Model the fold of this input.
Amino acid sequence: MRAAGSSIKTEVLAGITTFLTAMYIIVVNPGILAQAGVPFAGALTATVIVSFLGSCAMGLYARNPVLIAPGMGMNALFAFVMVHVGKLPWQTALGCVFWSGLIFAVLAAFNARKLVVEAIPASLRHAVSCGIGLFISLIGLVNAKFVIGDPVTIVRSASLNPVVITFLIGLAATTVFVARRITGALMLGIVFTTLIAIPIGRLWGDGTAYWPAAIATKTLVNWGGFFAAPDFSAMGQLDLLGSLKVVYWPFIFVMLFTSFFDALSTFLAIAEAGKLYDEHGQPRQIKQSMRVDAFAALISAPLGTSPANAYIESAAGISVGGRTGLVAVVAGLCFLPFLFLSPLLSLVPAIATAPALVLVGVFMMESVTQIEWHRFDEAIPAFLAMILIPLTYSITDGVAYGFLSFVIIKACTGRSKDIKPAMWVIAALSAVLLAHL
Done:
């Protein structure tokens, strides 16, 4: 621990902080998959199990402070693109998830990521890290209902109401905790914001009515009891043979490409956030980390959920000092009790974790100064990747456009020698992916 610049106390706090920022997935993932026909309770059980197994594997094998859980975006791709639009039965869609995970595992086993990582220029690595930081902050602002949709301006800040005021107070307090370098600052901010959110819906409205509201409309911190038995109804329901039809191959490819680059982008960004590099300047233990990510994606379908992958919310734990695999193990163990205690999740509302997510974005913007802004052939692709990740609400989309623009600009300005062979392949795959989105 000391060699890594940390301590057991710090690692445990970081693991709990990471879990608190990502635990929403335990109920959000089943809610999305249920719209595709997957039993809600079965998907919840699968979410908990794969998060526990994947995170512990990440900590014990890859020794990195990265949480693994079913990915947001991947579950939407599963439910709305594959099942609703593609008309796949959810069992067949799970089969596609399995085959994409198997191919991912083969690529990870043969260390294909080495060629990919070495082909990506430093400017794009820094841009992806900053873009993901902006994305995390945007997620926090949206969860807090501070940034809302608008038919004229697309987005705008919400008017002051109990939810927004509670978020702003929580953000201010968390900022003070961080600025004073208090141990576990983000976790303290989450607990503090949860406590001050208790009156919402009890003493005043939740912001859907004009404030102050005389009648309570919705409580944000709810007590739903302790116990809910696990449900294994979604386990083993995947259709392996039916999902191998040629017509379904594009879905397998898109799932594979998205999983691979989501994982790679996340590891690059987390390495930058925590300065977790090896002696060669590469993200620490990335080969093992990619293997774990592939393992988690592979076991997701048999368990009954969309693919699991590395969580960018892991940056929250790194921001409070987490540096070793103990962070991931602690976060993984935090999932396990919710096989039986899932009702307790309702105690922590989305606005409680929002301040932490906003500040994680601040921490991840440090590397923006390392982009060579005076070189437009480097700066423009970097800017596109950085800005499109939050604006498209997709890490994969932003990364794909950044990679593709890098190759096009370099080729059209007579700098093809700057493009490594693997980068040509990546750009071609990016174009194919974007064509299928």
